[in-house]
């Protein structure tokens, strides 16, 4: 389909902007490829975006509906505009690369209502080489200390019926499989019956962000948001006839308004990543760039690591979270065994779930805001003894705070819970929000909860605690400002394979995630299951990948904390475990070597501070050969590669554990092809050979 030439739209955009020159309302990206033009159409602000002169976003309206206020939509005039250019290079305490480039041209537009009550609104646009971000700023106004927003009216009018990867606009969960349809075919309301989720609320035909779309000429476009800390999550209503996405903020069950904002107030950034292909979109830093620099001065205590857990056992059922079942997992004795396993294998951390009282009550339906106090351990778990033992072995404990969705109760316990962790020297917490949210009426992604998640991050930062959040608010790059927000779930994790009621996650799932969910930030997927058939516990389901694919995930999926998920006994004596022991968690460089959304992806990452490289490649349910050109290696160095790859007879359905390990020398310029079985992949470590 032919894209509409951008210049034809400009005239339309400027109707009503007589006092401003076209150039005052246009910015281009630093490399000149992406243009953004803002206009007032009969007094309502609009914007449009093009790339190489062809429309990506057609003129799209901006604005709000307020409660108990006249609607300002048709009454704005442009009071003033100004432009800025900015360029910086920054570093993060951990990341996909050593340095991040943040270069953009900015356009600020000050709007004024031309009649009573003369409200002002500022629009801030930034054009980057990989897309556009914009936000609204509400200035102070005398006699008005807050505004009630009923709906945000931001539109994204797409220029084509794009190929789209989307999950439904669920107000409580992101744990859905991605759907692949044309924009015009999106029907999210069909996805309401979800087998494995405690809570899911999909009120209309809308999608959650990021939604990633591909044009007929291969341009990859992803719409999301950045710096979501105090405002409702933005889902996108889908007008399938007009190819229009429109902000639909997550609301409250009783309140008419969806957001209460104090004045002055800046909304989160609305982001449109635009890249020439799948490789480029995966490495976009646009979301991070639109977050503020770190507010934590000394970040030395925030350390990437691998971690094992007393965790999978509960999901499989060989152990229990609750005490008194005869198979309680979090006992002092078990904890020490796991600490030994971690210490013996260079695994930095250990997550222990079910260490505290309350689980039994939760499972029997006691009012859930009264069951967990986050400080009382079960009688068979000597917390100080376990913490001291972990310290003596150099293993970091990850505390577990499952709130059962009782977020207000958790806030009331936060000080004492974090004080206990400080007293024991525990500096990581995994939080969880399974089930309906208390206070009643709130959803996981409503404004109150967004503020709750942020409160937990900020309080944790004061206590020098890093947070791994499950059932979180979506990732919007807040880790730049609060690097202690180290990783989060917010996707359909490995646990779905174990529960398996609906067949688990197909092999395609993780060939989509790097181009959708992961654009927001790190994912706590929990990779590394070797017993992919889940024998002898699961007759009817399994992990739908080969073992080599599981290894590849340590490279394909980015997270500064990566779980070593399987039972320790499944790793002991297993030659492929060497890869998990070796693989890095913090990187100087990330290069996507090859990728097609939903088909395959090959990633190379250079470990921070070393000359070692790690490669991961995965395919969907189709077998294929993935090629690698070793151009990224240094010309003057020699390297030894170890590859863990699917055996010729491997298949995720059968022989999922059939793999081979090979060693050979590699040098810059070499080219090789690697066979990937259906649902398979390969993982490779490359080490410099020093003479
Ligand atoms: C769901 C989380 O995703 C999982 O990791 C955790 O074990 C359970 N909730 C219990 O908290
Ligand atoms: Ca979950």
Explain how this protein is built.
The protein has 691 residues and is an alpha+beta fold. Among the domains are: 7-289, Beta-galactosidase, Chain A, domain 5 (Distorted Sandwich); 293-304 and 319-444 and 456-468, Aldolase class I (TIM Barrel). The protein has 14 helices and 36 strands. Strands 6, 7, 8, 9, 12, 13, 15, 16, 20 and 21 form a 10-stranded antiparallel sheet that branches. Strands 1-2-3-4-11-18-17-14 form an 8-stranded antiparallel sheet. Strands 27-26-25-24-23-22-28 form a 7-stranded parallel sheet. Strand 2 and strand 3 form a beta hairpin. Helix 5 (332-344) runs parallel beside helix 7. The protein is globular. The N and C termini lie far apart (57 Å). Bound molecules: 1-deoxynojirimycin and calcium ion (CA). Calcium ion (CA) is lined by residues 175, 470-471, 489, 493.
What are the main properties of this structure?
691 residues, alpha+beta, Beta-galactosidase, Chain A, domain 5, TIM Barrel, ten-stranded antiparallel β-sheet, 14 helices, 36 strands, 16% helix, 33% strand, disordered N terminus, binds 1-deoxynojirimycin, binds calcium ion
């Amino acid at each position: 389909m032919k894209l509409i030439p951008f210049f034809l739209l400009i005239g339309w955009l400027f109707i009503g902007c007589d006092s401003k020159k076209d150039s005052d309302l246009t910015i281009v990206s630093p490399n000149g490829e992406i243009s953004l033009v803002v206009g007032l159409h009969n007094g309502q602000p609009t914007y449009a975006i093009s790339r190489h002169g062809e429309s990506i976003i057609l003129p799209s309206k901006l604005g709000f509906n307020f409660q108990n206020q006249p609607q300002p939509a048709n009454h704005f005039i442009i009071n003033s505009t100004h432009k800025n250019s900015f360029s910086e290079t920054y570093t993060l305490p951990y990341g996909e690369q050593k340095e991040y480039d943040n270069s953009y041209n900015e356009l600020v537009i000050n709007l004024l209502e031309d009649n009573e009550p003369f409200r002002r609104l500022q629009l801030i646009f930034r054009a980057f080489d990989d897309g556009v971000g914009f936000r609204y700023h509400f200035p102070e106004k005398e006699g008005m200390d807050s505004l009630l927003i009923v709906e945000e009216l931001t539109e994204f009018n797409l220029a084509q019926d794009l190929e789209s990867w989307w999950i439904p606009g669920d107000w409580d969960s992101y744990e859905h499989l991605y759907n692949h349809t044309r924009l015009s075919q999106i029907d999210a309301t069909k996805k309401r019956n979800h087998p494995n989720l405690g809570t899911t609320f999909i009120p209309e035909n809308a999608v959650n962000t990021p939604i990633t779309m591909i044009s007929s000429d291969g341009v990859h476009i992803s719409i999301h948001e950045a710096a979501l800390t105090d405002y409702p999550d933005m889902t996108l209503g889908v007008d399938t006839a007009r190819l229009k996405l429109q902000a639909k903020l997550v609301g409250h069950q009783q309140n008419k308004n969806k957001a209460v904002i104090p004045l002055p107030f800046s909304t989160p950034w609305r982001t449109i990543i635009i890249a020439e292909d799948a490789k480029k979109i995966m490495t976009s830093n646009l979301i991070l760039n639109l977050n503020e620099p770190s507010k934590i001065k000394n970040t030395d205590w925030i350390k990437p690591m691998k971690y094992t857990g007393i965790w999978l056992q509960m999901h499989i059922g060989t152990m229990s979270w609750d005490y008194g079942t005869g198979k309680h997992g979090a006992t002092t004795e078990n904890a020490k065994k796991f600490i030994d396993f971690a210490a013996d294998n260079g695994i930095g951390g250990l997550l222990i779930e079910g260490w505290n009282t309350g689980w039994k009550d939760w499972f029997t339906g006691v009012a859930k805001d009264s069951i967990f106090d986050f400080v009382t351990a079960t009688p068979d778990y000597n917390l100080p003894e376990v913490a001291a033992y972990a310290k003596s072995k150099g293993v970091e404990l990850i505390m577990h705070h499952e709130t059962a969705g009782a977020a207000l109760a958790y806030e009331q316990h936060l000080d004492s819970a974090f004080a206990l962790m400080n007293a024991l020297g525990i500096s990581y917490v995994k939080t969880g929000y399974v089930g309906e949210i208390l206070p009643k009426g709130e959803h996981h992604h409503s404004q109150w909860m967004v503020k709750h998640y942020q409160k937990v991050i900020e309080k944790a930062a004061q206590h020098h605690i890093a947070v791994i959040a499950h059932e979180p608010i979506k990732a919007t790059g807040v880790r730049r400002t609060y690097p202690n927000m180290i990783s989060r779930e917010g996707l359909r994790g490995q646990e779905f394979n174990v529960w398996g009621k609906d067949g688990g996650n197909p092999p395609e799932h993780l060939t989509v995630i790097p181009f959708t969910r992961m654009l927001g930030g790190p994912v706590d997927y929990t990779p590394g299951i070797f017993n992919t058939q889940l024998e002898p516990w699961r007759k009817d389901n399994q992990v739908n990948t080969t073992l080599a694919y599981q290894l590849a995930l340590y490279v394909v999926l980015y997270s500064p904390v990566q779980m070593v998920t399987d039972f320790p006994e499944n790793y002991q004596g297993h030659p492929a475990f060497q890869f998990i022991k070796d693989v890095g968690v913090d990187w100087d460089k990330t290069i996507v070597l090859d990728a097609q959304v939903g088909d395959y992806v090959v990633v190379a990452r250079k470990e921070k501070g070393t000359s070692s490289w790690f490669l991961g490649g995965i395919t969907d349910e189709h077998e294929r050969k993935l090629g690698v050109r070793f151009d990224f290696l240094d010309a003057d160095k020699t390297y030894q590669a170890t590859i863990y790859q699917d055996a010729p007879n491997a298949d995720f359905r059968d022989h999922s554990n059939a793999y081979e390990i090979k060693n050979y020398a590699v040098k810059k310029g070499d080219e090789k092809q690697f066979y990937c079985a259906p649902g398979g992949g390969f993982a490779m470590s490359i080490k410099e050979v020093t003479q």
